[in-house]
Amino acid sequence: MKRREPSPGVRHADFEALYQRHNREVWASAFARRMDTHAALDIMQEAFARLWQQWEDGTEILNPRAWLLRVARNLAEDYAKSAFRRNGTHPPQTMNGVRSHEPMPVELLERQETFGQLRAVLQELSTSDREILTFKYALEYPTEQIAELLGINATAVHMRLSRARQRLAERLKAAGVGHNSI
Amino acid sequence: MNRVRDKVMSAMLQPPIDPREPGRSADEVDGLLHSFFQSELPRSWPPFRMPPPRLRSATAWRPRMRSALALAASVTILVLSLGLVPGKLAERSIRIPRGSDNSATNTTKDAPRPSTMLPEKR
């Protein structure tokens, strides 16, 4: 880290641009660890707030994206520990938010149930599996972008995605998410 | 109504996903994951909430000032103690009764042992 010359006007605009560029990735990284949209948003805000404070102190972060992702990861892990201490464990259904107004109530309930089961199975997967799935399906990032973000090559992304999906399918089956349960 | 259920069922019935030959099962799992993650994605991204500015003038200097004062006080006490201790020792050595003509500075080596200074019992 180096000392950065203060330039408040430009710095604020720069920061807004940085926020627009990376907020989704930071959210996704936190979501992959917490599996909770709102907690991930809080973590995202906190990570950016900490970066802003670094800027305010005149510290230049050479790679803000990597810095933000690392802070979000640490915050998500700390959040998990503190949330566990505060609340204990919750059933997966607790986190099922209802947001869409389109489906009919019965369909909505069924959708909630399915997503609750899927969430529970996703939570059994490794963080790296959840992370790559989040980048792929939430952010809809192309393979090259995921590869760049995770620091691996495109082939490795394909392999990891395929294996993550396979593990997910196996666990869904093992959890009884199939003919009889749904 | 049973669209989601059908999706999961179909996904389960299909053989394991082969990345080289993406078939229907991959599509089904894709669809399920896509709809789940999209439902979790925030509808609108909140703007960045600027943290309140730190009160540097009120808070930042205080701990530094306190520690500096504590350090200065410690050094002063140390210096004063170093100055006082030899003086005290010299005073003490003067008070101790000695032989005939020993001076205050010539205490440790030539002074008789305390036991020899005690008056003899009769």
Please explain how this structure is put together.
The complex is a heterodimer of chains A (182) and B (122). The termini of chain A are far apart. Chain A is 73% helix and 2% strand. Chain A has 182 residues and is mostly helical. Chain A is built from seven helices and two strands, in the order βααβααααα. With 122 residues, chain B is an all-alpha fold. Chain B is built from four helices and no strands. Chain B has helices at residues 3-13, 24-40, 56-95, 114-117. The longest helix of chain B has 40 residues, at 56-95. In chain B, 10% of the residues are buried. Classes of the chains: A mainly alpha (182), B mainly alpha (122). The interface between A and B is large, with 46 and 36 residues.
List key phrases describing it.
heterodimer, A: 182 residues, mainly alpha, disordered C terminus, B: 122 residues
Short note summarizing the structure:
Chain A is mainly alpha-helical and 182 residues long.
Number of helices of chain B: 4
Strand content of chain A: under 5%
Radius of gyration of CA atoms of chain B, rounded to a whole number: 45 Å
Shape category of chain B: rod-shaped
Largest sheet of chain A: 2 strands, antiparallel
**Total beta strands of chain A:** 2
| Cα-to-Cα separation, first versus last residue of chain A | 54 Å
**Which structural category fits the helices and strands of chain A?**
mainly alpha
The low-confidence runs of chain B, each spanning 5 or more residues with pLDDT under 50, are: 11-24
Low-confidence stretches of chain A are: 178-182
Oligomer: heterodimer
Query: Residue share in helices of chain B?
Result: 55-70%
Q: List the chains of the largest interface with their residue counts.
A: A-B, 46 and 36 residues
Q: What global shape of chain A is seen?
A: globular
Structural class of chain B: mainly alpha
Number of helices of chain A: 7
